[in-house]
Amino acid sequence: MEIEWQDLHHGELSAARLYQLLALRSQVFVVEQRCVYQDIDGADLLGGNRHLLGLYQDRLLAYARILAPQAAGEPVKIGRVIVSSEARGLSLGSRLIKHAIACCERHWPQQPQFLSAQAHLQRFYSSAGFVATGEVYDEDGIPHIDMLRG
């Protein structure tokens, strides 16, 4: 499956593409995971924040949000990492995290990368070079762990 990867500043998102990514995030994080939380948190359209999209025939199958560092020396934050249910089992998660890391390194070289991982995915993120930096904690009813790379 040939995926088209787009690394977009929020200002490059069309209304239709923004709607598509918000719909995917809602489908996975709210509906599938049965987690009621405020996904639209005000960060999607701020500063240098970026959106990484994996598209197949104009369908959004993979996505990650990249939050620019808030200050010098702070890490880039990778979040909202998703593979749609129709594309799971195709190794898109591994490709997505590689593209997310490349995006971070391209736009913020020499900056570490941070993510708040769902705890059951710790081994997956470790295989991409992330190291746990604390203990498992509850976030919206789901166990998470902070991880850092670089």
Task: Please give a quick description of this structure.
This protein has 150 residues and is of the alpha+beta class. It has helices spanning 15-32, 92-107, 122-126; strands spanning 4-9, 50-56, 59-67, 76-83, 113-118, 131-132, 137-139, 142-149.
Provide structural commentary.
- With 150 residues, the chain is an alpha+beta fold.
- Strands 1, 2, 3, 4, 5, 6, 7 and 8 form an eight-stranded mixed β-sheet that branches.
Broad shape:
globular
Multimerization status: single chain
The end-to-end distance, rounded to whole angstroms, is 31 Å
CATH architecture designation? 3-Layer(aba) Sandwich
Helix percentage range? 25-40%
The CATH C-level name is: Alpha Beta
Rg value: 15 Å
**CATH fourth-tier homologous superfamily:** Gcn5-related N-acetyltransferase (GNAT)
Query: With helices defined by DSSP (H or I, 4 residues minimum), what is the helix count?
Result: 3
Strand content: 25-35%
Q: What count of structural domains?
A: 1
Task: Write a concise keyword list for the protein shown above.
150 residues, alpha+beta, Aminopeptidase, 8-stranded mixed sheet
Explain the layout of strands and helices.
Elements lengths: L3 E6 L5 H18 L17 E7 L2 E9 L8 E8 L8 H16 L5 E6 L3 H5 L4 E2 L4 E3 L2 E8 L1
Parallel strand pairs: 4-5
Antiparallel strand pairs: 1-2, 2-3, 3-4, 5-8, 6-8, 7-8
